[in-house]
Specification:
This protein has nine helices and seven strands. By secondary structure, it is α/β, with parallel strands linked by helices. It has one domain: Rossmann fold (3-Layer(aba) Sandwich), CATH 3.40.50. It has a five-stranded parallel beta sheet. The protein has a two-stranded antiparallel sheet with strand order 3-4. Helix 1 packs across helix 9 and helix 7 crosses helix 8. The longest helix has 19 residues. The protein is globular. It binds 2'-deoxycytidine-5'-monophosphate (DC).
């Protein structure tokens, strides 16, 4: 069994915010794996590479590390620098969805992600954590929310959508990414058979965090896993 709390789900389902808050409440590390796919897309763009045909030689030149920040959360460093807001642009989001379809990228990042998990409990958030990266994760949560709710949440976030984007445009962009993420041949977005499904439509952030922390605590107790840090 892996000391991983897997939180998977589609774009704008609230995963990142909820996973970060849950990890803070449990006082354990939080790893956002979407930032790895975004970092690969950003690095490939910067290097003038064709995002549709990356090769292992290029991927092996990247340096990806998670560094504990002042606030205690882990932030991704790409080639020695914090990419920060550069990861959150619409161009990088679309690029991440494209590179995420390639087996060579997924295989490379599989090793990177497994390397981050040690003997300590960690919250890892993404699309395939409970199905592919840690199929033996101690807790698996799959978060969903209605497409309308997700479009509203995405619109409320800074940076990702162009200024003045409408709800309908955002909903279309989310639907396109859902389609690409769930129809790709490798590691498609889908809940693990043993994942707990949580629909957060209509939940406030606090309610979602409370519900999910409660579910995780119960699962950890059932499996006899202690939170040590
Ligand atoms: O969660 P996010 O929007 O930052 O993810 C960016 C892209 O990376 C998204 O299109 C799906 C992909 N991704 C993935 O395929 N597997 C993961 N574990 C995390 C993200």
């Amino acid at each position: 069994m892996s000391y991983c709390i897997a939180i998977d789900g589609p774009a704008a389902s609230g995963k990142s915010t909820i996973a970060r808050r849950v990890a803070e409440k449990l006082n354990i590390a939080y790893i956002n794996t979407g930032s790895l796919y975004r970092a690969v897309a950003l690095a490939a763009n910067r290097a003038g590479r064709d995002l549709a045909s990356l090769d292992r030689g290029f991927l092996d030149t990247l340096k990806l590390e998670y560094v504990k920040s002042g606030s205690g959360s882990y932030e991704l460093k790409l080639n020695g620098e914090f990419p920060g807001a550069a990861l959150r642009t619409a161009e990088v989001a679309a690029g991440a969805s494209c590179v995420a379809t390639q087996p060579v990228v997924r295989d490379y990042l599989l090793g990177v992600q497994r390397g981050f998990a040690g003997g300590q409990l960690v919250v890892m958030e993404g699309r395939d954590i409970g199905t592919v990266i840690f199929p033996d994760a101690v807790v698996k949560i799959f978060l969903t929310a209605s497409p309308e709710e997700r479009a509203r949440r995405r619109l409320a976030q800074d940076g990702e959508m162009p200024d003045g984007a409408t709800l309908a445009e955002v909903a279309r962009e989310i639907a396109a990414r859902d389609k690409q993420d769930s129809e790709r041949a490798v590691a498609p977005l889908k809940p693990a058979p043993d994942a707990i499904l949580v629909d957060t439509t209509g939940f406030s952030l606090d309610q979602a965090v409370e519900t999910i922390t409660g579910l995780i605590a119960r699962k950890l107790q059932e499996s006899g896993t202690c939170i040590t840090k």
